[in-house]
Each structure stands twice: as structure tokens, then as C-alpha cells.
């Protein structure tokens, strides 16, 4: 059968987004719109100890609530199971995820597994899991991010660590996309400079990779609507989200790292993170995230910091297939590309990212995270297996080329 290109694109985002200083005060009202009388709040112990969770739960009245604060960074399957067990015990009719991507991920998967039953790994793709599709909507879920980075508040994907197997796996389903998101910059003020910087660079990479990923009409047309992948290629709308996100993050990340109490900059970062999330969860990602996922699974490197080290090397590799897009990215990050050649314009984008990461304290390379030359082949092999991420990379890539990129990022 001859190749038939895709001619249709879809856009899926969280259906209700409440944004602004004081937005969290409306959390109880939003929960009430779902008819909620009881809620399970999924978060981490650090936010509970810092009083952030108290600030959030105070707005839930008259909804009764139970707090599960057992989430840890890169949560493993046991943490997901513990949250699901808690949901089974309290039988909530609302789930509220408060925190970074890990807490929101645990909340989203708790929503569907508590509703439909089974084990977490049942819904993970084969061969690691059973590949069972999520059958329908879960318990209504509200995401309340306290970091500007992951975009989990509008993502249908959750990431699960399997440390004994050096793996990170995921569950992807439209039914995991939160029903509402509350973006209140005041909740991110207490985030220290380091996590602020790394999460911000993660958000930037989401927007950059979404902006250069393959367009929807350069992918094969599915036989059925249900076969269209979540990452269905960039479209005019994902481009709008990505451009705005790149500019907002480039203009504000330095400020929030240096002065975390600047609410205007925090607001722009939260909005930029959401826009980047909306862009990449529809358009797709690329080699930067494949490398970061592999490094995180094998070496347990911090995701945002790994991204910071890998992104410039990936830009340099991909440049020949996306010169014009990288030139635009350079301009959005404040570089003047007037009179520059195609190569120079793309290099300006890589340098702009490097300068931003250095300015927010994330300079260095993968070697600073403990990755050594001898690790490169294994990392490249693992990254090469992440076909879902690499499918959208603008330039054809294989294991040998991934090795070269990782060496460049050391």
C-alpha cells in the first residue's frame, strides 16, 4: 500500500485552567464543580513540612480531605501502589496532586487505577507491563503544580521508575490528563534556586523539542482515529504554545532563580511551563529526552540537570534538519541572528541555551553527574530503545549517532 501522509492533527489539553496569584483559593469551588465531597491530596513530605500543603488544603472547605505525602522524586512502582491503596481506604471522589511532576504523576495514575482496578504495571506497555489500555475516565483529578517545569498538569503520561531494572517506564492515556489545573505562582515562591533552575530548563526543553519535532503531515496517516499517537507531530497551534513558552522562560528563568519572590516572573514561568506542556504532549519530544530518560534510569541523574547538559549537543546534531527553527529559537532567547549563516544561527541557539544554563547555575556536562566515557555505549543503547521519543526527532538518528551526541555532552 502506498504511503499516505497524515492530514489531520489533534490538540488535547487540560480542559480547565485557573491561573494567577490567588488562584488556589478557588480550589474548593473547582472541586465542587465535580460534585466532590471527599478528596485525596497526593503530595510529598517536603511540601507538607514547608506548610504548602496546609495552604492548599485550607482552600478545599467544605470538601473533606486526606493527605498522602509519600511521594518521592522519580517515584517507583511501590509509591504508586501505596497511593492507590490509600485511595482504596478513603474512597475519595476527587484526587488533588500538589507538587512537581512526581506528585502529579502519582495522582493521575492513582485516579485511573483506583477507579478501574488492576495493578499499576498492567497499564504499562509490553514487554515490561501487560499493555492494557486504560478503559475510561478515572476519579476527577486536579493538578496544582508548585514547580514550573514538567508540564504534568496537562500531560496524559506518567513516568514510573523501576530501579532494580535500571528502567523508567510510562503509562500513556488520554484518561490520565487532569480534569483541571490550578496555576498559582504564590505556591512556587518557596522553591529553592536549584530546583527552580532545573525545572525551568526542563520546561524550556519541552518547548524547544516540540517546536522542532516533525510536523503532523510528515507522519503516516493512521487507519483509525484511535491509532493516532499521542505525540502526533507539531501543528500551527503547538507552534504558538512553544514559541510563547520559549520566550517566557528565556525572559524570566534568571529572575526567578535570583529572586524567587518575584511573582510576575513566577507567573510567567508557570504559564510558560504549561504552554510547553501543551506543546510537547501533542507534538512530541526528541533525542534530548531520550538521553535524559536513559541517564536517569541508569545513573539516577536529576532530570532537569541532565536536560541542561544534553540539549545544546542535540541542537548541534539536529541543526541540519531544522536550521530555520533553531534560528527562531535563538531570536526568542534574545540572540541577534541578523547576517548570520544557517550554521551560525543554529549555533546561536545552542549557545543561548548554554548561557542560560550557566547563568542559573547548571553549567557543566554529563561528566559532572558521574557519567563516564565507558558509560556512553550503554546509555546510547538504552536511549535508542525509546522509539516513542525518537520518532519525532527532526533528524534521523541511530545508536551510533546517539553515542556521538552523548560524548559531545560529557
Automatic annotation (TrEMBL):
EC number annotated for this UniProt entry: 1.1.99.24
Domain Fe-containing alcohol dehydrogenase-like C-terminal: 235-409
Catalytic activity: 4-hydroxybutanoate + 2-oxoglutarate = (R)-2-hydroxyglutarate + succinate semialdehyde; (S)-3-hydroxybutanoate + 2-oxoglutarate = (R)-2-hydroxyglutarate + acetoacetate
Keyword Isomerase in record: no
Every Alcohol dehydrogenase iron-type/glycerol dehydrogenase GldA domain range: 16-185
UniProt record similarity statement: Belongs to the iron-containing alcohol dehydrogenase family. Hydroxyacid-oxoacid transhydrogenase subfamily.
Name by which UniProt lists this protein: hydroxyacid-oxoacid transhydrogenase
